[in-house]
Structure prediction request, 307 residues.
Amino acid sequence: MGDEIVISVLEHHSNIVPWQLLAQRTGAVLRWFDITEAGRLDLAKAEADGLINERTRIVSLAWVSNVLGTVNPVAQIAAQAHAVGAIVVVDGSQGVPQLPTRVSQLGADLLAFTGHKLVGPTGIGVLWGRYDLLAGLPPFLGGGEMIEVVTMESSTYAPPPYRFEAGTPPIAQAVGLGAAIEYLEGVGMEWVAAHETEITAYALAGMASLPGVRVLGPTEAVDRGGAVSFTLSTTDGLEIHPHDVMQLLDARGIAVRGGHHCARPLHARLGITASSRASSYLYTTTGEIDALIDGLAYVQDFFGRRA
Ligand SMILES: Cc1ncc(COP(=O)(O)O)c(C=O)c1O
Prediction:
């Protein structure tokens, strides 16, 4: 009793809902980091509130935000978490595709990421974990392949990772994910990270040049990934709904996403229901960013009078 799980307000729903389910099952309390005006984790407030303390059992954070683009100081927070004996879980779904990954430097005890964010297939992801932790976990799903010996009375289980891989695996997806990771390693994750920074800086500068664009999250490409979410108003200050932005840009061949990006609590925290998000990756060019900025000006023209 009294156990606490610490997450942050900027998490993807996939790093909120499972902890809520666990808290409901166990009676643990869910607590979270707030964010600053600049869209970074509010470490000072967390310190003042004693967010990580002797009751903390798990700290689970996104490495990189899928909305704000913020790169969180995971290693620093992991050190604090480990000092009180907590386990550190890292959602690497945005971080692993964009940054060179060294789990030990990150301070992660468990690191999860999804295949389809790193030019791989859907329907598969990766959970990396410290072996001693994985070996202590019971299976979460029963079936073939995860067993050692089965009798009619009981079963014993294979060691990790097989214990967690009940049933026929998604073979095609696993082969596809392996190929994607080899491809990215061939390109070089240092190069991918540098390219992301360059394109993101270019996009942020372009957006800063357009009145009526409010970038959510850090406005400089420092400790920042490639997701640039924003709200858009006409130059006479009328808000344009992200779904309208998305549709008009789509008609010009520019794909942005509109909505809450599976981060509803973050949008509520920012006082908005939705945002538009432009995401770059290793294939994005500055010419495409120019087209996006022109497109945004077009959307502003469409809905209002430009000064
Ligand atoms: C930060 C982050 N976490 C988790 C996810 C969830 O990925 P999936 O739905 O593939 O499990 C995503 C992407 O959708 C994400 O961007």
Summary: Residues 189-208 form the longest helix (20 residues). The mean pLDDT is 97. The longest strand covers residues 56-62.
